[in-house]
Amino acid sequence: xxxxxxxxxxxxxxxxxxxxxxxxxxxxxxxxxxxxxxxxxxxxxxxxxxxxxxxxxxxxxxxxxxxxxxxxxxxxxxxxxxxxxxxxxxxxxxxxxxxxxxxxxxxxxxxxxxxxxxxxxxxxxxxxxxxxxxxxxxxxxxxxxxxxxxxxxxxxxxxxxxxxxxxxxxxxxxxxxxxxxxxxxxxxxxxxxxxxxxxxxxxxxxxxxxxxxxxxxxxxxxxxxxxxxxxxxxxxxxxxxxxxxxx
Amino acid sequence: xxxxxxxxxxxxxxxxxxxxxxxxxxxxxxxxxxxxxxxxxxxxxxxxxxxxxxxxxxxxxxxxxxxxxxxxxxxxxxxxxxxxxxxxxxxxxxxxxxxxxxxxxxxxxxxxxxxxxxxxxxxxxxxxxxxxxxxxxxxxxxxxxxxxxxxxxxxxxxxxxxxxxxxxxxxxxxxxxxxxxxxxxxxxxxxxxxxxxxxxxxxxxxxxxxxxxxxxxxxxxxxxxxxxxxxxxxxxxxxxxxxxxxxxxxxxxxxxxxxxxxxxxxxxxxxxxxxxxxxx
Lengths: 247, 280
Hints:
By secondary structure, chain A is an alpha/beta fold. Chain A is 30% helix and 24% strand. Chain A contains seven helices and 13 strands.
C-alpha cells in the first residue's frame, strides 16, 4: 500500500487507535477484530508513555477479567465504568440509528442478520461509542434504517449519558454532533476525496473546514502492532490474525 | 452409590418435549452438542429457545432440523464463520417467530426469576424498534425519586422461567456439584429453570467445597436434576479451559448450512458421527 508495506486493516486499526488515547477503559464486543487490535495497540502505546489504559475484550480469556457472568459487561457499562465501546450496523442512518437485525419491512424481512446484541443498552450508557462499518456504500449508510436496534439520539426525559461519537468506514471518518443530530466528515482514506464520499453515502452530513486524509501509522507504531499486538489478537481472532499477519 | 442422579443422554432428551421452553447457553459457556444431536434424532417439534444471550451452531442446527417454532435471542450467528443460514432462511420464510431482544434484557428477565419478582427494570431500549414488537415489555415513569431525570421513562421486563436447561461442563465432583469457572451466566440460567441437566467431560473423585477457590467456581448440586457423562460433549464447539473449537468443522458446517439440501446431507453424517473420534 505504501513504503511501509501497510495492509489496509492496519491503517484502520491505527485510525481507531488514535481515537482511544485519552480513555481509561475501552471494551470490545463480538466480531470485532479490528477494534480489538486497536484497543490493545492503544494500551501498549499508553504503557510506553507510563499511562494506564484498561482494555476488555469480550471474546478473549486473557483480556476479559469479568467473573460475574456475561451480564457484567452491561452492568459495568451502566455504572459508567466503560468509556468507549464499538458497535457496527448492517445499516447506519443520518441520525446515527443503527440496524443489526435486517433489511425490509420487519418482521417480513428480505434479509435477516444476526440481531441487536447488547446495542440497545450499550449505545445509551457508554459515553463514547465508535461506530465501525467497513463497507461504505448507499446500502450501508442510509437516510433511514429499516429497523432501529438502537437509536442515535433520545428524548430529554430518557437517561442517556452515552451515544455515538465517531463513525469509521473503509473510506472515511465522521464525527457525530449530538445537538445537531448530524455526522460531520473529518477524514478520508488515501486516494478518496470529498466528492467520492458524497457519491457513496446515502445520507447528508456536515463537512469539517479542513478535511484530511487518514494519517499513516509511524514505523514505530507498526512495529508494535506487528510484533506485540498481532500474537495477542491470534488468541481471540485466530482467523483474522492469520489472514493479516501470519500467512 | 453416587449422592446424585447420574443419568444418560437419552434420559435428558426424554425430559424435552414438544413445546418445551429450552435454555440455550452462548458459544462460550458450554454448548451441549451431543445432547443436541440426540434431541434432533428424537424429532422433537415446536421448541421455544431462550438464548442467553445468543446462539451459534446449536440454535442453527435445531432450526434447520425443524425442531423450533420460536426463538428469543439478542443474536443468532456463526461468529467468525458468518451468518447462521438456517436461521435466516427460517425467518425469511416465516417458519419461526423471533422475539428480538438485547443481551442485558435476556439476563434481566432471568434475574427477575432468580429473585422471584415479577419483573426487572432496565435502562436503554426505549426508542428502539425492539420495543415496538415486544408487547410483553412495558414502559413506566420512574416511580422513585433518585434518578435525577424529571419524568424519566424506564422499561420493565417480565420474569421468565425456563422449562429445561441443558449445558455442557468440564467436570462434576462426587457430590454432583458442577465446575462452571467464570461462566456465572450458567448459574443465572440454572436458578431460573424448572429443570437443569448437565453433560460433563468427567465426574471426578473430589469435593469442590474442600477448597475456597474451587468452591467459588462451582454451581451447587441443589440446582441440578441430573448429570450425564459425555466426552467431547461440546464438539465442534469449544469448552473453556479444556479444548478449543474445531474451526475446520465449524467452517464445514457454515458452508453446508447455506442451503437446506446440503444442510440435510451434512446432518445425516453429523448425527451419526462418533464425536470421540471426530474431536481428535
